[in-house]
Amino acid sequence: xxxxxxxxxxxxxxxxxxxxxxxxxxxxxxxxxxxxxxxxxxxxxxxxxxxxxxxxxxxxxxxxxxxxxxxxxxxxxxxxxxxxxxxxxxxxxxxxxxxxxxxxxxxxxxxxxxxxxxxxxxxxxxxxxxxxxxxxxxxxxxxxxxxxxxxxxxxxxxxxxxxxxxxxxxxxxxxxxxxxxxxxxxxxxxxxxxxxxxxxxxxxxxxxxxxxxxxxxxxxxxxxxxxxxxxxxxxxxxxxxxxxxxxxxxxxxxxxxxxxxxxxxxxx
Length: 268
What we know:
By secondary structure, this protein is α/β, with parallel strands linked by helices. It contains ten helices and nine strands. It has one domain: TIM Barrel. Helix content is 37%, strand content 13%. Helix 3 runs parallel beside helix 5 (153-165). The longest helix is centred in the last third of the chain and has 17 residues, at 251-267.
């Protein structure tokens, strides 16, 4: 088992890595479910303005671009923004700096132009890098709504194939799942042949009503997700994926399974 695949006891990003690193504030992909936006907007009122989060910029507090990070183990980069073409150069420098002492888990809704450069420039460190691409559904309409600035699903699948065919370690994150059971099964079937490691499935976190109230259809879309991800439906999902060795459950699903186990013990 590789360092990227080993089980960790943490939650969220700590399920995947010992350390996280970011170099930007905001994200051009402007995903409506983003966990980082409300965290940042809590203390920075300017980020609460509609559209402000999408104006991604370098964080002046991260000017060393990872050079200050010592030996941590697996470092996840990035977590609160993405590697878009506009920020490819500083992102590449950051990854190279992190690789001096660590393995790097690159998590991204990937742009093909970015992945081509990273595959070329990081070739010497292939054993210390894994690409984990976020694809939450094969339904482009769903993804366009929830991830308005992100690359198309077609482009993300092209990135997955590009990295896989060149011998890179590949993984998929479907957190949050945006589709129903049948759609999530179809997603896993589609990506499985191009995944060398794991396919992670997770529920959507708290719906960010207050930051997305201006988005037409957001209330209805949020209610749909909540209905799809009830405990009953999550248990159906887990049963449907039984025996799939590449499937991993994020903490949101593990929590449902733990509660179910407690109920079973109490009833015994």
